Amino acid sequence: MGRAPLQVIWVSFSIGIGIWAGRRLAKLFFWDEELKYRVWEETEISFWKAFGKPKHLEAKVEFDSVVHPGSIFRSYLPENGFTSIDEVLDKYDI
What we know:
Blueprint: H1 5-30, H2 33-51, E1 61-64, E2 72-75, H3 85-92
Antiparallel strand pairs: 1-2
């Protein structure tokens, strides 16, 4: 008919721990900070080449360039991609 309550709890706990451990291991083995910044920089450079640099925006993030070592890369995108709800409300006077 159905599963025993203890069995459901055990399976749910095992799945939760498995997902948590899998994410930790993937981050440990596959995360590369330099690759993140290289992809970010190359993507933004190619976009601005295709569509032109923005005229009314200021750079939000600055970091040492991975593509051109020794120079500073200025990005117009926020690092996490999100702004706070207060900034949105203030900007649009909601």
